[in-house]
Amino acid sequence: MAVDFNDSESRLEYLGEKLDDLMDGINVNYGKILMDELVRRLEHTVSDFNDEVKVLINSLKANKPLEESTDSPMTPNDQAVEEGELSEFERRLEELEKGHK
């Protein structure tokens, strides 16, 4: 079965099938309530992940850095990037861009 991960209904059906397989042994003890809660949490997690990936992709397409969160401390790599040095990821992106020109 091909799964369209862009379609919410298809994702839910896929997750439901996989969880049914995993839950066969313990379903007698926990039942439908647990299954519904697991599916709800997984769908929420997948949705959050998709939103974060979209932001990342759009940022990369615009060739601009992501906005820094004010509540997270800066790592030495963040400081180096702020001082004008490229991160390892940015260097690799530059190399890829040069290779495609």
Silhouette: elongated
Cα end-to-end separation: 39 Å
Structural class, from helix and strand content? Answer: mainly alpha
Query: What is the domain total for the residues?
Result: 2
For this entry, give a set of tags.
101 residues, mainly alpha, 2 domains
Explain this structure to me?
With 101 residues, the chain is an all-alpha fold. It folds into two domains: 1-67, no CATH class; 69-101, no CATH class. Helices cover 70% and strands 0% of the residues. The protein contains four helices and no strands. The protein has helices at residues 8-23, 27-61, 76-82, 88-100. Helix 1 (8-23) packs antiparallel against helix 2 (27-61). The protein is elongated, with a radius of gyration of 20 Å. The mean pLDDT is 75.
Summarize the structure.
With 101 residues, this protein is an all-alpha fold.
Strand and helix layout:
Elements: H1 8-23, H2 27-61, H3 76-82, H4 88-100
